[in-house]
TrEMBL record:
Matching Gene3D superfamilies: HAD superfamily/HAD-like
Full protein name: YqeG family HAD IIIA-type phosphatase
Matching CDD domains: HAD_BsYqeG-like (cd16416)
Organism expressing this protein natively: Heliobacterium mobile
GO CC annotation: cytoplasm
A single GO molecular function term of this UniProt record: phosphatidylglycerophosphatase activity
Length: 180
């Protein structure tokens, strides 16, 4: 369960103050695409996110998109918003993509952060890689069918102080899922 807890939670990416990141010594950001930077399968960036990305560039903080989505989705998006580094088909929460992203940016787990909207991919993968994880609220409710199912479990995991009765419910739910 510890690996499913984000180190930090913010409403949206642009709430992460760029000067504060610099002050903390952050040099690289591994960032999810769908519902973190923009809506699922959308290409439009909201002006605030656009500004935030420019501020990062000015401060010299590198950004690498790490997405489980396909190359044909990720590549045009990265090109469109001039993000030089991206990895598609990342298979998060596998560590491989996170490690590769840090290699590309020339950063380490100590001076990198992971930002994403899902705990079973972004947060779990980031925590497993020893990187500071930031969970954002998904931009839109519209998403991949499988993701909508996962959200229901996420809501249970994210409930900070779980009453005993709810905790029990969660485990019953898990056991049921494992049954044929
Ligand atoms: Mg996402």
């Amino acid at each position: 369960m510890r690996l499913l807890k984000p180190a930090q939670r913010v409403e949206a990416v642009h709430e992460l103050n760029v000067s504060e990141l610099t002050a903390r010594g952050i040099q690289g950001i591994i960032i999810d695409l769908d519902n973190t930077l923009t809506e699922w399968n959308e290409y439009h960036l909201c002006p605030k996110v656009h500004q935030w990305l420019s501020d990062l560039e000015v401060q010299g903080i590198k950004v690498c998109i790490l997405s489980n989505n396909k190359e044909k989705r990720v590549q045009p998006f990265a090109a469109g918003c001039r993000i030089p580094y991206y990895i598609s088909g990342a298979r998060k929460p596998r560590r491989k993509g996170f490690i590769r992203a840090m290699q590309i940016m020339g950063t380490t787990p100590e001076n990198t952060i992971v930002i994403g909207d899902q705990i079973f991919t972004d947060v779990l993968g980031g925590n497993r890689s020893g990187i500071h994880t930031v969970l954002v609220n998904p931009i839109s409710r519209r998403e991949f069918f499988g993701t909508r199912m996962v959200r229901r479990i996420e809501r249970i995991v994210l409930r900070e102080k779980k009453p005993r009765s709810e905790r029990k419910k969660f485990f019953v739910f898990k056991r049921r899922e494992g049954q044929p």
